Amino acid sequence: MERFNSDRISAEELAIVDNNAQWLGIPLGHLMECAGYSIAIELVERYNLKEADKVAIFCGTGNNGGD
Length: 67
What we know:
Layout (H helix, E strand, L loop, with lengths): L10 H13 L4 H20 L20
């Protein structure tokens, strides 16, 4: 998956992107799956994690532009 490099996007702007993606037929679940995959890859690369390493991720209830 290619990294998306840009300036920071506000939660309001990301909500618009989410709505547009949904309108184009991309399920919101797929967007969150891609977000989770992206952060997992970033953690593995940044901290040189191995398969046996364990990581705990704490997150809120969602719907806040997290992806």
